[in-house]
Each structure stands twice: as C-alpha cells, then as structure tokens.
Amino acid sequence: MPGKMPLIFGASRILWMVFAASQAFKIEISPESKIIAQFGDSVSLTCRATGCESPFFSWRTQIDSPLNGKVTNEGTRSTLTMNSVSFENEHHYLCTATCGSEKWEKAVQVEIYSFSKDPEIHFSAPLEIGKPVTVTCLVPDVYPYDRLELDLLKGNHLMKNQEFLEDMDRKSLETKSLEVTFTPVSEDIGKSLVCRAQLHIEEIDAKLKERETTKTVQVNISPKNTVISVNPSTSLQEGNSVTMACSSDGVPVPEILWSKKLDNGNLQPLSGNATLTLIAMRMEDSGIYVCEAVNLVGRNREEVELIVQEKTFAVEIYPGSQIAAQIGDSVVLTCGVTDCESPSFSWKTQIDSPLSGKVWSEGTKSTLTLSPASLENEHFYLCTVTCGHKKQEKGIRVDLYSFPTDPEIEMSGPLVNGNPVSVSCKVPDVYPFDRLEIELLKGVHIMKTQRFLEDMDKRSPETKSLEMTFIPTIEDTGKVLVCQARLDIDEMEFEPKQRQSTQTLHVNVAPRDTTILVSPSTILKEGSTVNMTCFSDGLPAPKIMWSKHLINGDLEPLSESTTLTLISTKIEDSGIYVCEGSNQVGISRKEVELIIQGKENNKDYFSPELLVLYCASSLIIPAIGMIIYFARKANMKGSYSLVEAQKPKV
To answer: Can you give the residue range of the structural domain that contains 287?
Structure first.
C-alpha cells in the first residue's frame, strides 16, 4: 500500500492539469468571419468569452474608424449593434477580450449591398403601332452595381442583356438601366415585357438575388371612325330638345369633347361627356356642333349641323282618324293642342248638320260627347283650332254599328231520323247588315253561307237570318250545329267582330222492330203459368205498355213492365194481347194470341223432372229475349234524347 500512494497522487495531478487546460481562456465571435447586410438593415455582432468569469471587452474597426454602433456588455458576452447600416459600417470589426494578463482578439467582416426595389419599365412615348419607341429597364438604388445583370424580354424572346462590370469609383447607391428601341406591331398587343435584374452575391439568399417586373404591352391606336348620332333629328322646332351621342374607336378609349363653332371660326367648349343634350332650344342654337375624340396618341373630329325652326303648334284628335261605336254607347271625341298656350276650339260636321252632342273645352283640350250615340251621329266631325293668327283643322269619322247579341238557332220541330227539318240562324238588331255574313256549320262542315249585300233602304238595326232544310240521321247525334255571324268593320276594337251560338244535335228514332217472346207457349192448359216478354227499338228508349183486346174492341191496360206474367191461367185469359212501344216521336205495336185449354179428367201426374224443365224454360226464354234486345241496341250508334219534342198522333 505505501508503494502505491505516490502513483495515485501522480495520476490525479495529471488529470487536474488536463482539466485546467480544457478550461483555458478563449473567445468566439458570431457571425464567425463575414456578414452580408442589406442597406438600411440592423446588424448585431456578438463576442463571447469562455474560461474567464469577468472578461473585459473592447470593439474597434481595423482602420480605427468610428464604430457607428452601440456596444452592450453582459457577463461573458459583448454585442455591437448597428441600426440602419450604410457604407460607414462596411469594415472589418475586431473584438478584444482581456482576462487578467491574457488577451484574445477576433475579427468579422461586414459587407453592405442594396437591392431593395423591383426594376422599373419606362417608355419614351405611348406605344403606337408602326412608330418606334424606346423602352428602358432600370434598377434604382443598387450596390454594388458591378455585380448587377439586367435582362429585357418580350414574351419569351430576349431583347437585350447587360452586365455592369466597370470599376466603381465610389461607394454609392446608383440607378442602372438598359434601353431597347423597337417598333410595336399588332401582334405585340397583350404580350408581356419582363425586366429581370440579378445581383450576383453568393452569400445572400437566392430569393434576394433576383427581382423582376412585368408589363403587358398596351399598344395605343389613334382615334378614328368618329360617329355622331342625333335624336330625334337635326331639324328641330323652337322649344324642342335634342340629344347628340358621339363615339370613336381608339386605344385607350378616346375622351369625347363637344364644342360649337362660333361665327369667327373659334370653338366654344360645351361638354366633356359622350352625350350632349340641349333642351328648350331657340333659333340661335342653330349651328355646327363639333365632336372631338382625343387620346394619348391622337385626335379625330366629326361635325353635325342643327337647324332650329320657328315654333308651330300641333293638333291631335283622339281616339284617331276613325272610330266605330255601338249604337247606344257614349262616344267621346277629344281634340288636343301642343305648343299653344291659349287655343280656341270649334266643332262641326263636314256637311254642317247638327252636332247632336255636348262640347266642353278647357286649356289645351276640347271634347265632343255623343251620348247615347244614335244613327244621326254618324258623320265626319271637324275640330278647328285657332292659335294667334294661325289655324289648324283635324277630322274624325264616326261610324255606328249594332251587333249586341249572339245568333239564335231555331228548329222547325224535333229531329227525327230521316225526316226533313228546317233550321234558322237569326241575328237580331244588326247594323249595317250589308257588312253581315252568317255561316251555318255542322261540326266542321259548312252547310250554308249567306251575305246580305243588298242596299239598305233605311238606316236602322234589323234582324237577319239564314235558313235551310236538312235531313238528320242517327250519325248526326252528338254533332254540334254552329251558327257564326261576322260583322266586317275594321275599326271595331273593343267589341267582338264575330259572334256564334252552338247547339248539340240529338236525333230521335221512332219505335220499331217490336218483338214478343212467349214462354212456355201460346197454347196452355188451364192453371198453367205463362211469361210474355216485349222488346222494341227506338230513341229515346220506348216505353212498354201491355193491354188486352176486349169484346167491344177497346184495349184493357194491363202492365207497363217488359214482361207480363199470368199465373194459374183460366179459360177466360184466352185472347189477343197487345205490346205497345212508344216514345216522343212514334208508336210500334205487336200482338200475340193466347189460347187456354180446359183441363183433362186424367189423374194429375206430377213429375219432378217436368217441373225442373218448366222452370228452366221460364227463365231461359226471357233471358234469350233480353240478349236479342241488347244485341239490337248494341248495333245502334250513340245514345239519343229529344228536347221539347212534340208527341206524334197515332
């Protein structure tokens, strides 16, 4: 053990010396050797000491120029802050740290650049097709410009490239540019001019090395095709208004300037709007008006002459030059004046017959009221207007008509299949009947047309009618009879020129094909039961009446049912039975003789089979009769009824 102690002590001393050496005094500077700063930015340099608890720091430039910054010391760290760096800050900066007898010094290079603005594109003049123009691509406030490269492109085409490699005689922010002269063509419109600037400094971020500006080529076109439109006209009356609109083609859109030519040839400015409106014009407003279209690259002029004439008044009559009125209505004729403050009115007929109406005048209007209008009011009326020493006259024709109701359809009697019937289409109280046309149609088929072109021996409403005879058939049932009346007066605007009435046809068929079915037979044993069933065709469906001939020749009514049933017949039930089918237009009769024989003395024999057969036959025979009847009905077309039919004599 005593021999090992010196060895342990020696090893510890060596470790302590290594640890002390690792904690030796030294400094570090951040950034380490170089910083590139944008002109106007804030820059901080930091000096940090290790291995010394209380170091002393000092800062200076390599050439001992002013720091132009603020030093802040805190413990083992010292910071030099320079706000808004400029050329005065472009130096090598030295940080000196002292710890006891030891001193350390570290340096960092601060370099300045300026590239804060996008390039600018300028033209020597507005771009115009066919005219050369110089385009300038410039970069303001750039430093160092010997690292600058400019490109000018039109679309994807490189127009010019320029580098600025000349020596810089002084430190300053300068504007550098390149110029290109070219002649715009129509194909250039809408293309992009690109000015691209690159500052080749490797130490700065790639995004900060390049800037570009783009301008779309806007080629200007001098004003042309200048056009003036005038509403309502270039020839006007005193007091009227006029609107003049001017348009011109060009790029950019031309500005419109209105002026009027004076007698001395000078122009009197009026308006800078495209539309010029002049109201309450006077004769002295006559003259030549000038529209001048102006834009950046030129101007174009167009002229129009306005003529303002002496004011005259106008007369209008309402509702127009001609009117057709219904007899009995109230008719109001109005005479109006414009451009006259105090007119005087007078009314008369063209043949100087009595007015037969009431005149009322106020201000610039006068009315003649005919109420109620009658045939004595059918005239041409004149309204005379006097304004100062001038006089004007307007006329209106008043035509009267009567067409108050729809036509009336009348039949001479009920419609019976195969029987001729007269139909009348009547138009009451019509005037003038020489303009009347009546048309009778069955469905869409025209049966007859009639015009009443004969001279009217008197002026009064009359009733006119169209008449014809036709033979109805079963096929006519359901069709529509149409009576159309048309009064051809073009001036009728508020009353119908055409009226019509309709009537649906219902054709009757007299009873026919009357049939009697007897079950089981017309010859029976006394005490038997018999069923007699009667059928008859017709429209409307015939009514069935059963009766029996009496000895005196009269008929004894029995039943109104289709089937007549006699139970437990007797000898006296023998005789002639009558079935009568009747409707509004006829009767059909059928007879059958029934014979009842006396009973035999033989013992009654009852057979169940015979009873079943008898019952079956009594049901089957009426059923067969009904089938025959409905089959006949099915062969008839339609369903029929007669309205207000007269019962025929039998």
So the answer is: 221-309
